[in-house]
Amino acid sequence: MKLQKELVAASSVPLILSILTAGDNYGYSIIQRVKELSGGRIEWTDGMLYPVLHWLEDQDMVRSRWVESEAGRKRKYYTLKSGGRQALRQQREQWNLVNSVLNQLWSPHHA
Amino acid sequence: MPDLEPSIAAWRKTMMAAPHVGPDTLDELETHLRETVEELVRSGVPETEAFERAVQRLGSPAAVTSEFQKLNAFTWLPATAVTAAGIAAALLLAGYLFSLFQTPARDILLAAHVLAITLGYGATLLLGVLGVCFVCQRCATDFSPRRVRSLSRVTSTYGQIAALLTALGMVLGMVWSHQHWGRYWGWDSREVGALSVVVWLLCFLCAHRSRRITARGALIASLLGSNLVLLAWFGPLFPWREGLHSYGMPIQATPLMLAALAMNLLFFLVGLAPAGWLRLRKA
Predict the structure, then answer these.
(1) Average pLDDT of chain B?
(2) What is the model's pTM?
(3) Contact A27 B32 (CB under 8 A)
(4) What ipTM did this prediction achieve?
(5) For the residues of B210-231, what is the DSSP string, one character each?
(6) Contact between chains at B63 and A28 (C-beta distance less than 8 A)
(7) How far apart are CA B58 and CA A51, in angstroms?
(8) Is B42 on the interface with A (CB under 8 A)?
């Protein structure tokens, strides 16, 4: 089962922000992490991630910097800023609320 | 992977032709493309096929650019508001001046001079208003690099319009002055003022073009430009050289003028503080 694209789009910001709470990261690695955690069921078109990252930067939630790896490859790393942490807290509350309501509605006792 | 390079170069060329994807973003996408190709090659996919699949995963140029286009739709509210107000004021002023100077017809030249110089000064003042908005917003939060680039285009455009109109107004004034006063230039207070504004705007544009100042520097410096216009337009006349321009601020309004100059200087100093300093202090 794969997620509907609307849900994939809606969850992209909390997913990215959550991944960045673990430390600085870059686009390719973020996609791999999402794929790994969802068992491949959340599938992003790779090119769609970058506009979201740039939007987060515009909104002062993350900042970026180019870093050269030991192998000589330059990667653009994203770092979570305080605005991003705050946004993530709000997103978390909202997603938890939706999750809790659905769990209650779908529990056998409810019916 | 030497065989990959021509394919990546061709891909870059296609992407570069697409709007809304700057060189920095393109570098980032290219890094991603290379990483995907490497991963696929490691899993046993032939290089040519790996490249095609990586491009497919990244999305077509049209799809990628349409997403970035949504980002570029960013408009800074003060810039939109100031531009709209400037255009409205310019149209009203043009209508008013040309109706005022219609008779006798020869004064059309004077009307054109007044209109051009007023619009040039007005554009410089509006740039200063943008500077004030920028400084205020920057007290709370910093601007992202994308926004700064966008603001840089705005300040450059305003600077060009202001320089062009002020210079045009000055030249038209010189022609009119020659026709009516018998000389092109007389080192009158208002003439010196206009020349100072033109010189200031040219320096501003040169610094902009040579990238000696950032958008932040340009917007903060625009506050000094505002002060220069206030002095040139409403400032005192040279007592030793009264000239033929008699307009200016009445003596009673001097405190108002000084307050405006001081406010601009204050905003200029605040603009030198680090971004988000107000939020940091609250925290």
Answers:
(1) 84
(2) 0.62
(3) yes
(4) 0.87
(5) TT-S-HHHHHHHHHHHHHHHHH
(6) no
(7) 12
(8) no
